[in-house]
Write a structure and sequence with these properties.
Length: 563
């Protein structure tokens, strides 16, 4: 009898040992995730989408995975980031707009604070609770207080810039709305190194974080929100000089070259029409000096994209060196469309000139992009980055909302292909959870109710086991700063109430007409009415607040004065 009990205990211990081993093995087999978010990158700013900019590492990911040509996000940064990390609509996650743009009338409401709400759970928190190491290096912009920093929202190790943007060469603010550039490391105030360049530093720290836990066999989630190519546009001169002369023919020529290249790559339909975005200057009306300044701005911009790609390649090479590359899901996208700010004029002058002079920023062509310089590409150049789409950041047109999405790695079985299947930013969080085998919180976290994830898990589509992601009858609403959209099937209704002072809704088939060149509102009044009813239902369900009369985004941002 004693032998029997001994054998029984040994067998149970052996079974437990095998079970633990299986769990460890299963954990070790789970894929890593690298989520790369460019800042203000336009639709055709990467080579797989038709760009003249050299992005071989992003192109490699595209060749190894699936590229989405009909992916949509928000028209500015913080709402896009909040939806990306939570899978929850921006009007329910606390970030309906960047806090700098929210008028006082709306700030009186809890769901209009512009910072990540306590009633949402981040993708990082879910992965962390499931045994993932979680890292974040880059721009956060979802809150400054200790409870709002990424170190309190599911990330183990962090390097976080908390503002809308900052200098890429040193620890200094880029706009007079801030007293300082707010950097944090693991929740504590952080001082940047003397040899800092943003894209390089973010990858250095990501590699450092991953390397510190390499031996424990736990998978990792690395979120890398670059500052590239947010203003100030800055790049090492050797990168900018690679594009010398490329943009000398002006935006009309370059926009058409991008359109032709995107067609040839299969990114857009053949014979896609494009409009001239209102406000675009005539290249031939500019002086030679003005043309040179505009062209150099784009050279620096291209250099900044190129440098970002090179550093992405460094991370890819590192993961190969530790045999983790093949077990890593890579996701590359942008937070919104290209930046079309008119802060700097065609002459290189700026509304910020007095501030530039006081703090020592240079805007002349000689050192453009280098340490101590400040530049933005401007609205006319932004039409190159967005080509063949209309408008750019802050606008609810395709140029503001449609950006590249590239996914590669375990679970993405469709490789080297393009798809024009519609995807929205809230779809990424549930899809990443599915690809990693991590359960959705389903509206409850730490025994408290939280906002449920509303995005669609499209992992079956990635595996080649589904033919669509969103059904033709499924409406998806969106609003930011008074500009509103509803997507449904291949169609979109849109109105830009404040950015363009529009009073009428437009209807477009964005599958066949991504350039929004043909308004179908008069031709299809029944479809328009149906989609307007869908939008009103979505607006009410998400408690979307009206914008106050006379709202002006720029005036709100600079309400403290150009101090």
């Amino acid at each position: 009898m004693k032998d029997f009990y001994l054998r029984f205990i040994v067998s149970k211990l052996l079974a437990l040992f095998l079970l633990l081993n299986a769990a460890v093995a299963q954990q070790g087999d789970r894929p890593n995730v690298v989520l790369i978010l460019a800042d203000d990158l336009g639709y055709t700013d990467i080579s797989p989408f038709g760009s003249e900019i050299n992005t071989p590492n992003i192109a490699r990911l595209a060749a190894e995975g699936l590229s989405f040509t009909n992916y949509h996000t928000a028209a500015n940064c913080a709402p896009a980031r909040a939806m990306l990390l939570t899978g929850v609509d921006s009007h329910r996650n606390g970030v309906p707009n960047i806090p700098e743009s929210i008028p006082p009338e709306q700030m009186a409401y809890d769901h209009y604070q512009g910072v990540l709400s306590d009633n949402v759970v981040t993708l990082a928190s879910l992965l962390q609770a499931s045994g993932y190491h979680t890292y974040m290096t880059g721009k956060w912009h979802l809150g400054h207080t200790p409870a709002l920093l990424p170190s309190a929202r599911g990330f183990d190790r962090t390097i976080a810039m908390a503002d809308t943007g900052a200098d890429n060469w040193e620890q200094r603010t880029y706009l007079p709305i801030y007293q300082q550039a707010n950097w944090y490391a693991d929740g504590q105030t952080h001082t940047l190194p003397d040899d800092f360049y943003s894209s390089e530093y973010f990858i250095d720290k990501t590699i450092e974080f991953i390397d510190s836990n390499q031996e424990d066999d736990q998978p990792f989630f690395a979120y890398i929100p670059f500052q590239a190519v947010h203003m100030p546009v800055q790049a090492p001169r050797e990168f900018s000089d690679k594009y010398a002369g490329i943009y000398d023919e002006g935006w009309s020529v370059m926009r058409e070259k991008r359109r032709v290249a995107a067609e040839a790559a299969g990114v857009i339909p053949q014979n896609t029409e494009m409009i001239v975005t209102p406000g675009t200057l005539s290249w031939n009306s500019l002086t030679e000096e003005q043309q040179q300044h505009h062209a150099r701005r784009m050279e620096v911009y291209a250099g900044m994209v190129d440098a970002m790609d090179l550093h992405i390649g460094r991370l890819m090479a590192y993961l190969e060196s530790i045999d983790e590359y093949d077990n890593t899901i890579f996701i590359f996208t942008s937070d919104n469309g290209a930046e079309g700010s008119s802060i700097i004029s065609p002459t290189g002058a700026s509304m910020l000139d007095q501030w530039f002079n006081r703090v020592g920023y240079e805007t002349g062509i000689e050192t453009l992009g280098e340490k101590g310089s400040w530049v933005a590409i401007g609205p006319s150049n932004a039409t190159i980055a967005a080509s063949p789409l209309s408008f750019y950041k802050f606008h609810a047109n395709e140029g503001g909302l449609r950006v590249p999405l590239v996914m590669a790695g375990p679970g993405i079985e469709q490789r080297g292909l393009l798809t024009d299947e519609f995807v929205f930013v809230t779809d990424l969080a549930p899809t990443i959870l599915s690809l990693t085998g991590v359960a959705d919180h389903r509206g409850s976290w730490d025994n408290q109710p939280v906002e449920p994830i509303i995005g669609t898990d499209f992992s079956n589509y990635l595996a080649g086991n589904a033919i669509e992601i969103h059904g033709e009858s499924e409406p998806i609403g969106y609003e930011l700063g008074g500009s509103s959209v509803l997507f449904k099937g291949d169609y979109k209704i849109v109105i830009n109430r404040f950015e363009q002072n529009e009073t009428q809704w437009h209807l477009f088939n964005i599958k066949v007409d991504p350039g929004e060149s043909r308004d179908l509102a008069a031709e299809q009044p029944e479809r328009l009415a149906e989609m307007l009813a869908d939008y009103e239902e979505w607006e009410e369900a998400n408690n979307v607040l009206p914008m106050p009369e006379g709202y002006n985004r720029g005036r709100t941002i600079f309400s403290g004065g150009l101090n």
